[in-house]
């Protein structure tokens, strides 16, 4: 029951918060913190007891839900979903702490939506039944919509509606694909239709034409969520207008649902179509890398700069994934975790100064390292990890991605490497203008350094940033068997279609 408890304890805590009188705000915060802490501890237990030598799903829970329709309550975790689940519970726990002093209105509703969002996110990564997966996929839209629309910035309603419509558009196409799979899969035990993802994956042997349409139906939904170029236009608005915790979870977890979807569904279920789409996906990923980096260079808003950097970083993730070798795919999955840690930390860091100055414009800062030395130091560590400097997590992920990409296609590898250089340009230039030089604006002279609470949240992230950068083996060893299983599925059909153009 570890997975069920990890999913639904946050919702139970959220419902409890709704019953607490509105005036008891401190109690509401502690209940929310307790709910996320328990969920995080349970996922740590899953991690510690996970057998990294097999690609099989572990901690499985399966009960018949609606027998007449072949719907089951089926959960499980493998090397692909393990760290995404752990990342989700960890970031949500830190978001509750980071919101302690910054969110001062509608405390009850804010924490309820945040906890409901956690249930949806963890559920997506655990679900092994398509109906259950789709329920969790749609569930997470609602709390994020309200988090952006109520506690966001001046254009929050526009950003929330745009986020909702984009995601729903992709979800409808994915639903069509799910229903097609449902009507073309038979449960060997009952003889009826089934939504079971493992059974469907084993029986997915469609001709190339059908695979192509199904890949497009699923891929469109996941490409929007990643987001891949040119489906990225909702992302900057949502990031900039969302509250700090919303931005952290949006970048750290929700974007990974798109990349997770490609790994869990598109590649193993439609391998021949996936091979055929390698050139298109790789080119779009490269455009995203270069476009995201170049647009980040000209941003005046720090938060929007970090938002566009996500387009570039997720381009790397897709590039490594579609290299179709173990190095590239391992780097892709590890970089998803790295991006969640590093970019989540960057959004938290931007939130720290925004709470003090209520502006995110780069020109409104300058020289603040003098009054905020601890903050400047923590920002530099996270920035270096995002750039991909050796010794930090970003380097390991980008190195594996580029290694796999060069192995698959040298041209793609060279273009991808250019994105690493551009990342250093826009982040270092931003750091120079914000932290170094003279203090031009008198308001910045009064800025106080990180509080103990803020420092705790950031240092907790930095511990993992350095751990993965120095010793990634505990992560890679648990990922590789499951990734190899996906790769084996693709290589079964590779003789009929080349892996690279």
Key phrases:
two-stranded antiparallel ribbon, 501 residues, disordered C terminus, mainly alpha
Your description of this structure?
The protein is mainly alpha-helical and 501 residues long. It has a domain at 277-501. The protein is 72% helix and 3% strand. It is built from 20 helices and two strands. The protein has helices spanning 2-19, 25-48, 82-98, 107-126, 130-139, 141-151, 156-183, 197-203, 208-225, 234-241, 244-269, 271-276, 278-297, 302-321, 326-357, 373-387, 393-408, 410-435, 452-470, 473-491, and strands spanning 58-66, 71-77. The chain has a two-stranded antiparallel sheet. Strand 1 (58-66) and strand 2 (71-77) form a beta hairpin. The model is unreliable at 496-501 (pLDDT under 50).
Number of helices: 20
Determine the N-to-C terminus distance.
Answer: 46 Å
Mean pLDDT: 90
What sort of overall outline do the alpha carbons produce when their principal axes are compared?
globular
Largest sheet, spatial ordering of strands: 1-2
Any low-confidence stretches, pLDDT <50, length ≥5?
496-501
